[in-house]
Each structure stands twice: as structure tokens, then as C-alpha cells.
Design a protein that fits this description.
By secondary structure, the protein is an alpha+beta fold. 46% of the residues lie in helices and 14% in strands. It is built from twelve helices and eight strands.
């Protein structure tokens, strides 16, 4: 087989085209997937801002910044990012490990649409996180629907097997540290200090040295089960967090509009941390992920899990996932059944589900 590039080897000449990933790559509707997801990544139109000027004929008014922006790096191919997401979940990898294994595995590169073997990383691992955020719920459901269509076309599952599904709920854990009160109070203080520093605002006190000492002492007292001393440390941490909050609130008018919105958001979350107590309900367990909830699972080794309740619908035969949905607020499992069945029916293109 000839190659236009003499110094690089083509992937289709290096791999076995009967490999499952190679077969799946040839059967996936990549053109349909790219056309369906393209609107999610189109550049947004900007409002524009009026600019007053003056010329020989008098005052003028122009609108600057209107229309789609051409700034920024071009996006990576949709097929590459979608393929990385499929491989990440199929092989149980993290964002960091999936891009590293991609650079070592020619089958993975062929699945993602590569023509020549590459030794560099396909993207930064943080690019996958931003891609998922831009994809949204609608984009993920579109990918799941195309997966179901491909499974039926490959005869991996019979069409009649889609008539009976099993619905179950579980907890999708978040990658957060265990939410101790001492750590949350210290993180909130450091975040507000960082926002003030980025905004060019000099606070009266940052309590940086005392904050580190209090955090260390709280860990030692908790380990030694000296709860009276621990409560005194937590009280002091709340005091210094309140001082930093009030100092930053007084300086809000000095901040620019963009930073003012960010500071207001983090002040609201820090206020929740400052006022909540161990027995309170609807606590904030992570500043960067306010949607995290404490859900009881009844496990002996892990009574509680921190995350969001999700519902999974799979076929009775073949165990093919035909529906996945998040349910914030920890609703009762029976109340989520109707929404889960509705989503599975839509993703299976109206295939009727047997209520038995």
C-alpha cells in the first residue's frame, strides 16, 4: 500500500482491520454525529457595545464587537473528541490517562479518525472537560442515541430486546475531598483572598499564616478526638472567614463588572459555608461543585456518598444502556421512573417499552 507521506506509516496498514475497534470505527455514523453536534460548538453572536466618536461632520456612533468572534484557537475535530469520550468510558479511563493511552495505541487513533500514527498527545486533558460542558445534556443524549442505532445495525442486540428495560438509580460520585467543616472554611477564605488579589484589591488582613495553623490544628484535634478544642478552632476559622467576607463586600464597588459578578458568586457560597452547622440540611459540600449532595447508601463500609443521584436504563437482554439521566435534589426513586422511561423511549426512536 502506498502512502503520500514517506516518513510516516498509515494506521490502516499497521493494524488488523478485523479488530473490534476497527470494525466499530467503520460502522459508526460519524458524519451524522458531527452534523448533529456542530451547532453546540458554533461561535456565539455577541451583543456589541456602542462607541461614540467625533469627526469633521460631528459626533458619530459605532457598534464594536458585534457578530461572531473569530478570536481563539480553532476547535479540534469533533470526531476526535467524541472518540476520546467513547474510549474513556468504555475502558474506564480518566481524562489524563485516556490521552496518554491514545498516543500509544494505534487502534485508538484509528477509531478517532487518525490516518497516520502520532506520538504526541491529541489534546490537553482539560480540553475533554470543556468539551463535555459545551456538549450539554442534549449532545450526550444524541451520542447515546447513535450508540443504540449502531448496536442494532451491528446486530449486537435484537430490536425486540429493546421492548423490556431495567431501570435502577445510583449515586454518581463527585471527585471532591471529604467535606470537613475545617477544610471548607479554609478553602472559602483562600478563595476570597485569591479573588481579591486577582482584582487588585488589597484586603486589611488575609489571615494566611493563621489559616494554615488552624487547619493543621483542626486535623490533629479531630484525629485525637479532642472535640472541645476542635470546636474552638472551628469558631476561630468562622470568625476570620467572616472578616474576609465583610472586607471584600465593602470593596465590591471598586471591582470591574466581570470580577464583581465572580466575587458575588463566591461570596454567596462562602456565606453558606460560614452559616451552616453539622446538623443542617441542604449543606454545601464543595465550593466548586454546589450540586453535590450527601446521599445515604446503607453500605457498611461507606454509609454515605457525595454526588448526584442518577438513573440508568438498560435492556433486559444484552445489558445495553438505553437511558441515563441525573436527578438533582435526591428525589424518591419511584418518582424518577416516568422520566427515565420517557427518555429511553425517545432515545430508542419511539420503540414501545413493555410495561410488564
Amino acid at each position: 500500500m502506498t502512502t503520500p507521506d514517506f516518513f510516516r506509516a498509515r494506521l490502516d496498514a499497521m493494524i488488523d482491520l478485523r479488530h473490534p475497534l476497527a470494525v466499530l470505527a467503520s460502522r459508526m455514523p460519524w458524519v451524522e454525529i458531527e452534523s448533529a453536534l456542530a451547532p453546540c460548538f458554533s461561535r456565539r453572536d455577541r451583543q456589541g457595545r456602542p462607541i461614540e466618536g467625533l469627526d469633521l461632520f460631528g459626533p458619530t456612533l459605532k457598534v464594536a464587537g458585534a457578530g461572531p468572534s473569530a478570536a481563539g484557537r480553532p476547535r479540534l475535530p469533533i470526531r476526535l473528541m467524541v472518540g476520546l469520550l467513547y474510549l474513556k468510558h468504555a475502558f474506564g479511563e480518566s481524562d489524563e490517562s485516556v490521552v496518554q493511552r491514545w498516543a500509544e495505541n494505534p487502534y485508538w487513533q484509528f477509531f478517532c479518525g487518525g490516518e497516520y500514527f502520532e506520538t504526541r498527545l491529541p489534546c490537553d486533558p482539560s480540553g475533554l472537560t470543556r468539551f463535555r460542558h459545551a456538549l450539554g445534556d442534549a449532545g450526550v443524549e444524541e451520542l447515546l442515541a447513535k450508540t443504540i442505532e449502531t448496536a442494532v445495525s451491528l446486530k449486537a442486540i435484537a430490536p425486540q430486546d429493546l421492548e423490556r428495560v431495567i431501570v435502577d438509580s445510583t449515586v454518581q460520585e463527585k471527585a471532591i475531598a471529604f467535606p470537613t467543616d475545617s477544610r471548607l472554611l479554609d478553602v472559602a477564605r483562600r478563595k476570597l483572598v485569591l479573588i481579591a488579589k486577582r482584582s487588585g484589591v488589597v484586603l486589611r488582613q488575609t489571615f494566611e499564616k493563621e489559616g494554615r495553623s488552624l487547619k493543621r490544628r483542626a486535623g490533629g484535634y479531630a484525629h485525637a478526638k479532642q472535640y472541645r478544642r476542635l470546636r474552638r478552632v472551628l469558631k476561630r476559622q468562622r470568625t476570620i472567614l467572616g472578616r474576609v467576607m465583610r472586607d471584600l463586600e465593602r470593596r465590591l464597588p471598586e471591582l470591574a463588572d466581570g470580577m464583581k459578578e465572580i466575587a458575588t458568586l463566591w461570596l454567596k457560597r462562602a456565606r453558606r459555608i460560614h452559616t451552616q452547622r453539622p446538623k443542617d440540611k441542604n449543606k454545601l459540600y464543595a465550593l466548586h461543585a454546589p450540586e453535590v449532595e450527601c446521599i445515604g447508601k446503607g453500605k457498611a463500609r461507606q454509609p454515605y456518598e457525595f454526588g448526584v443521584k442518577v438513573g440508568i436504563a438498560t435492556t433486559e437482554r444484552g445489558n445495553l444502556i438505553v437511558g441515563a439521566r441525573a436527578f438533582p435534589g435526591n428525589p424518591y426513586d419511584g418518582h424518577t421512573l416516568a422520566e427515565q422511561i420517557e427518555q429511553a423511549t425517545i432515545l430508542m426512536q419511539g420503540n414501545r417499552i413493555d410495561p410488564a
